[in-house]
Fold this sequence. Notes:
Blueprint: E1 2-6, H1 11-22, E2 27-31, E3 42-45, H2 51-58, E4 61-66, H3 77-97, E5 102-106, E6 120-123, H4 136-150, E7 157-163, E8 166-167, H5 175-185, E9 198-199, E10 202-203, H6 204-214, E11 223-227, E12 233-234, H7 235-245, H8 257-270, H9 274-279, H10 286-293, E13 296-298, H11 301-307, H12 315-328, H13 332-338
Helix pairs in contact: 1-6, 2-3, 3-4
Amino acid sequence: xxxxxxxxxxxxxxxxxxxxxxxxxxxxxxxxxxxxxxxxxxxxxxxxxxxxxxxxxxxxxxxxxxxxxxxxxxxxxxxxxxxxxxxxxxxxxxxxxxxxxxxxxxxxxxxxxxxxxxxxxxxxxxxxxxxxxxxxxxxxxxxxxxxxxxxxxxxxxxxxxxxxxxxxxxxxxxxxxxxxxxxxxxxxxxxxxxxxxxxxxxxxxxxxxxxxxxxxxxxxxxxxxxxxxxxxxxxxxxxxxxxxxxxxxxxxxxxxxxxxxxxxxxxxxxxxxxxxxxxxxxxxxxxxxxxxxxxxxxxxxxxxxxxxxxxxxxxxxxxxxxxxxxxxxxxxxxxxxxx
Length: 339
């Protein structure tokens, strides 16, 4: 039977669609613009805010992979809740009513990020949600995940996959691309404060593998799974490696923590003005800074044990594949221009 994939026009959703099609799985790709859906999939034009279109999208499918979400570091909380929470709940209800047997949610470790949180090294799925969240994206991914896991029943199996910083060929807007754009413009200082910062990343093929496994694995109902590359990376030295591969200069200017804190406070004040927030992306945010100044590594043993998950692409190989893809679309200038 068919698998519905939401967010099919995006990097993650599109990769999942192509991965399932390559395995011979019939896929219905949900998108608001049919022209943006990957080739080879049946297309369902639907919106998470519209129950009627969702009902048509889930009709006859055996499973749903929910990759659509509102992303962002700033924005109105109501908009994040409308898409990431209410939209997820609406999709689940329609899928269960239509007789779908499985619902795989693409969550995020950002659901565990607090405003004053520190390093999270080697944490597993027993780590609790924080009492307060770093931003609306983090909060709504946490609330939506809890709704998904609580909806598990013997007839409707639900689970959540938590990839962090998905990257690789096809990525046009993700964290690696954002960093490349800042490196190219010479606008990325070294924010490490002299500390070594470790991070788990998730190469896109690894997430696709995890989705394929989660659609078939037994005893996954009501459970969350960290999904990451086999080894974490040291963020700032790795940034230097990425810069060198693309012929860019590594970050060299350092910013004292008090200066950084003051800049973030000023930016947040300005971006509370609706006219500003609606027109421009902020140059920096507490969320973006947290991603490169807080260590965040994840224990993937539950996914290995219960899903059979096996990440196989080393970072160096993934970077080479990503560089080849960027070259094929016209180089870094074209990638950044699109961004």
